[in-house]
Give the backbone structure.
Amino acid sequence: MIIYVGNLSLETTEDELRKEFTEFGEVISVTIMNDKHIGSGQPRGYGYVEMASKSAGATAITRLEGKTLRDRVVTVVQALPLSDKSGMSLSIKSNNRFNRKRERYTQ
């Protein structure tokens, strides 16, 4: 089970987050999102924790939702999947000029 953890202090480390969740079961991975793609590396204030079992994840969500970590009340919920049940990716369609296909007209 993958769990979203929001409203994290910018000083929170992955090890601290792992420690909070380990008391409820096996933690497979912890990732705190940051701006490494634009160069600053600044933490974004949220992350994901992957638990080995659904029951351990559900217990962790129940016990940690609304808990204060580093003077911040955190949000802890089950992460939503990136695709629907049929395996098709969900996407937002826009009707702006950058997303339209160019068509050639020949005479």
Observations:
- Residues 88-103 have pLDDT under 50 and may be disordered.
- The chain has two helices and six strands.
- The beta strands are 2-6, 27-34, 43-51, 68-69, 72-73, 75-78.
